[in-house]
Amino acid sequence: METNKILKGAPLAAEIKEKLIAEASAMEKKPMLATVRIGEKPDSIAYERNAVRRMKAYGMDAKSYVFPESITTEDFVREFKAISDDDAIDGILLMRPFPEHISEEEVYGTIDPMKDLDGISPINVARVFSWDARGYAAAIVEAIVRLLLHAGVELKGKNVTIVGRSKVVGRALAMMLLQHDATVTICHTKTVDMDRRCREADILVTCAGQKDLITAEYVKKDAVVIDVGFNVDEEGNISGDADFDGILDKVKMITPVPGGVGGVTTAILAEHLLRAAKSRRK
């Protein structure tokens, strides 16, 4: 295996962690994260546990709120607003996707933008799209860009294809890459000739949530592939969207799943939490 091609997130995450521990230890009160989850989806549980563990490792605190999948939108919005209004909470991480009967828009409009660490509130979405530095982008979006820059990958003038058009990740990532003067294409389920459009990319980012979606036919030689897919099978094994072994020989760099963007994402989340706590305590 050509290990020099594997772009791991651990070195960047370690740099961020060292800085955060120093800053958090200087605060009178530890920043407090609230994780909020509906139901028992394995991938949400895994992400929640990892986030709580990492916050504590960074010298911060975290508490988890779990609601049954049967909860109504009205009841959940009421409970969620109480969490958002709690002065002891500095930042909130909301596990998604929701059960189908829950109205995302009603929930997203409830969160305090100052505590919205993952860029879901309408105010933060608008700030990200208008390049307003006060807004929080989704931690995973910032992690992707930071990891590319840390690895010395040039963004200016490069063709970047994003597979996935969600408002919080795909579209928000496009806005952040445009800030770095990349030329961005977004592909989705209705894209015609998606394999050709992916092959045109110098940098290919996949966030579709579909195992082995990206095969060698989708990747041009010496492309950089950032895999942020998160798929959990019945045995609990985690994989990304890319056929890692099938495209490794063809790429310049590729992030593994797990071990790639995920660790950096959690570090960025902690960075957002520290920033939120400092802003609220001025």
Automatic annotation (TrEMBL):
Q: What Pfam families would the database entry show?
A: THF_DHG_CYH, THF_DHG_CYH_C
Report domain Tetrahydrofolate dehydrogenase/cyclohydrolase NAD(P)-binding positions: 142-280
Organism superkingdom: Bacteria
Q: Where does NADP(+) bind?
A: G164, R165, S166
GO MF annotation: an example:
methylenetetrahydrofolate dehydrogenase (NADP+) activity
Recorded E.C. number(s)? 1.5.1.5, 3.5.4.9
GO BP: L-histidine biosynthetic process; methionine biosynthetic process; purine nucleotide biosynthetic process; tetrahydrofolate interconversion
Q: Which GO terms describe its cellular component?
A: cytosol
Query: What InterPro entries has UniProt attached to this entry?
Result: Aminoacid_DH-like_N_sf, NAD(P)-bd_dom_sf, THF_DH/CycHdrlase, THF_DH/CycHdrlase_cat_dom, THF_DH/CycHdrlase_NAD-bd_dom
| Alphabetical list of Gene3D superfamilies matching this protein | Leucine Dehydrogenase, chain A, domain 1 (3.40.50.10860), NAD(P)-binding Rossmann-like Domain (3.40.50.720)
According to the entry, every stretch annotated as the Tetrahydrofolate dehydrogenase/cyclohydrolase catalytic domain falls at 7-118
**Catalysed reactions, semicolon-separated:** (6R)-5,10-methenyltetrahydrofolate + H2O = (6R)-10-formyltetrahydrofolate + H(+); (6R)-5,10-methylene-5,6,7,8-tetrahydrofolate + NADP(+) = (6R)-5,10-methenyltetrahydrofolate + NADPH
UniProt KW keywords: Amino-acid biosynthesis, Histidine biosynthesis, Hydrolase, Methionine biosynthesis, Multifunctional enzyme, NADP, One-carbon metabolism, Oxidoreductase, Purine biosynthesis
Please state which protein family the record places this protein in. Belongs to the tetrahydrofolate dehydrogenase/cyclohydrolase family.
Cited function:
Catalyzes the oxidation of 5,10-methylenetetrahydrofolate to 5,10-methenyltetrahydrofolate and then the hydrolysis of 5,10-methenyltetrahydrofolate to 10-formyltetrahydrofolate.
Q: How does it assemble?
A: Homodimer.
User: What is the name attached to this protein's record?
Assistant: Bifunctional protein FolD
Q: List the source organism.
A: [Clostridium] aminophilum
Q: Which gene encodes it?
A: folD
